[in-house]
Amino acid sequence: MRVDVVSIFPEYLAPLDLSLIGRARRDGLLDLAVHDLRDFAHDRHRTVDDTPFGGGAGMVMKPEPWAAALAHVVAAGSRPGAPVPHLVVPGPGGVPFTQALAHELADQEWLAFACGRYEGIDERVYEHAAERMPVTVVSLGDYVLNGGEVAVLAIVEAVARLLPGVVGNAASLLEESHEGGLLEYPVYTRPAVWDDDGTTREVPPVLLSGHHAEIGAWRHAQRVERTAARRPDLVPAAATVTGLDDLEVR
Ligand code: ADE
Description:
- It contains eight helices and nine strands.
- The chain is an alpha/beta fold.
- The chain folds into two domains: 2-170, 3-Layer(aba) Sandwich (Alpha/beta knot); 175-242, tRNA(m1g37)methyltransferase, domain 2 (Trp Operon Repressor, Chain A, Orthogonal Bundle).
- The strands form three sheets. It has a five-stranded parallel sheet with strand order 2-1-6-5-7. Strands 3-4 form a two-stranded antiparallel ribbon. A two-stranded antiparallel sheet has the order 8-9.
- α2 (63-77) packs parallel to α4 (123-130) and α3 (99-106) packs across α5.
- The longest helix is centred in the C-terminal third of the chain and has 19 residues, at 212-230.
- The protein is elongated, with a radius of gyration of 22 Å.
- Residues 90-92, 139-141, 143-145, 148, 151 line the site of adenine.
């Protein structure tokens, strides 16, 4: 997968060199380029923002640098027969980022991310881009970040780990929270009995039983209980997916 990110803070994306994502890049599974929006400004001050028409607080990102930057991304990444990128613009006004959307994005050959700052990007940029490529505005959640960079870190990590070969044990992806509509079950490791501060904490005995069917049933029950307790909003969907019609919401 190819990924391009346009930002006025390219250094913000440095963590994409680390850990699993960094290794995926070095292994050639992820071809990621970060571009500085200011390189596409037209004046010697490298201006990318201006005051909003109609008044109001803050600054708005100008359209011309964005059009130039996105044209550069498309030209730099295009190969004969290659698609255009799917443009993702992180913003609190977007569609919610979910595991389902992560899977959809992971199916794309090429993603481009446009990181807005200030009060946002001139609306005409979205129209201009949408005439050239698919565009999706994506929100991490119902809160406001200072810009799109932190959201890009989260989205790229969630998407890249779904690419074949990025996560060593593909089976581990299947049992995770949000896969199959339920949260993950609790996990334990050695020691089986842990004494700390005068309190003894034991691993649930079923996990030491070696009885795989019972362990599976226990884990499933834990997922259902956790989902009902922490994310009751997920329970109707989970009940449909897993046939748990008699699920009780606590
Ligand atoms: N940029 C600012 N707030 C955001 C949010 N909640 N999600 C994604 N991008 C954002």
